[in-house]
Amino acid sequence: MRCLTPLLLSLLAAAAAQAQPYDIVLAHGRVLDPATGLDAVRYVGIRGTQIAAVSETPLQGRTVVDATGLVVAPGFIDLHQHGQTPENYRFKARDGVTTALEMEVGVSPVPEWYRAREGKSLINFGASSGEIPARIAVMHDSGTFLPRDAAEHAATPEQRRAIYSLVRRGLDEGALGIGMGIAYVPAASRAEILELFGLAAQYKTAVYVHIRDGGPVEPGVVDALQEVISDAAITGASLHVVHITSMALRQTGLCLDMIRGARRHGLDVTTEMYPYTAGMTDIGSAIFNPGWQAKQGGITYHDLQWALTGERLTAESFARYRKIGGMVAVHSIPEDIVRLAIADPMTMIASDGILQNGKGHPRAAGTYARVLGRYVREQHVLSLMEAVRKMTIMPAERLGVPRKGRIEVGCDADITVFDPARVIDRATFANPAQYSQGIPYVLVNGTFVVRNGELVSGVEPGKGLRRP
Ligand SMILES: [Zn+2]
Q: Rounded to the nearest whole angstrom, what is the distance from the C-alpha of residue 242 to the centroid of ligand 1?
């Protein structure tokens, strides 16, 4: 679906002919628009918050950026960004992300969360209505982000009704779908999860889910994926399975084929991945209940890396840190699995990022530049157009936001300009708080947030995305 009708387009063209200069012109860049397949040198004119012209011939602008040799792409849309603070938004913007959404864990209550960011954000933001925060509130769990005690247990019938109505209220208040982390609430029954899929179907929206189990040992990734695909088939809800590689590990190919099969038979199932060989989560969470080594494909304490210090763990330090909780990197995903998944046309790119005072997983800062630099330019795992598609129109279509993820007249002027010869991530596990490079310009709703390779200070053009 295009942003404007042909009639409006021709009216706009007539108006443009009257030679009003555009606010901003991105001149002579290589425009990549995966939604239409456009890959050609163009002049992009921006008026206010929207793209007003995509022209083969030069345009007049009050501000003209020479984009010769650079790619002009739709701004990247990150469906899976936990860090929703000014610090995190700066790293996102420098990685080319113009919209960062908390879809997996989600939020509750929804209006307060949006209100805290409206008019104060560098980039666009949004969230799902989260089953986890609803459960934390209803069951009085001591966790803040992920459950740590009460919410890991089975809910009483009254609690279950209260969770359901909180999640439903979040949808009424504009949340972009339902967020679910079944692995973090292992006592949530299959009936309880199915009921929430029914709610998503009723609202014609998607469930964004961290599935019940991962890894090769049953209960593991295959039966966990079967659970949510069944729930989607039974209810008619759309389903988005988060970070497929960290769940499926060596069975990623099989799991992608399961999703492909479901799609072929008419189900709306999508998935995403981050381009790293390690995940990260809270060491205090249910992920590290007894048996975690086998569930993660046979890893050991040494494959865990404490985010605050970068140290590899031992049985002793694991026990110590598990008591206090905190972020730990889990080195469990083989590199050939990352490549296999990134080359698959079904996977979207999403970061699962969060930085706190500069500490965290490098994916928070480097996901998008890493795909473009390492996997497109250096390793030729996928084409540039294909990579940009996974970062823009695919997530936009998953969300159902027609004005995002496109370089087309009438669309929101969320635009990322990068140098395909230089773009690369710099964030590492030892030092994750390093900006990506080779992304000189980023616009959010027609306002520069990155200019000449630097963050622009004092601008907050980001808007909240809500369910239409
Ligand atoms: Zn997750």
A: 6
pTM of the model: 0.96
CA distance 308 to 2: 46
Cα angle: 37, vertex 92, 22; to 5 degrees? 55
> Nearest to residue 134, comparing CAs of 200, 179, 177?
179
One-letter amino acid identity for 427? Answer: A
3-state secondary structure of 207: strand
Tens digit of each residue's pLDDT (9 = 90 or more) over 224-236: 999 999 999 999 9
248-268 pLDDT, tens digit per residue, is: 999 999 999 999 999 999 999
* CA–CA distance, 272 with 255 (Å, rounded to integer): 12
Which residues neighbour ligand 1 (ion) by CB within 5 Å?
210
- As a whole number of angstroms, the distance between CA 354 and CA 256 comes to 26
What is the 284 CA–ligand 1 centroid distance (Å)? Answer: 14
**DSSP-assigned beta bridge partners for residue 61:** 22
Q: How close is the Cα of 182 to the center of ligand 1, in Å?
A: 9
- 3-class DSSP state of 26: strand
The CA-to-CA distance between both ends of the chain, in Å, stands at 15
The helix/strand count (H/E) of the chain reads as: 15, 22
Identify the DSSP state of 373: I
* Residue 191 CA to ligand 1 centre (angstroms): 21
How far, rounded to the nearest angstrom, does the alpha carbon of residue 254 sit from its chain's CA centroid? Answer: 23
Does an H or E element contain 397, and which? Answer: helix 393-399
Residue 100: beta bridge partners? 78, 125
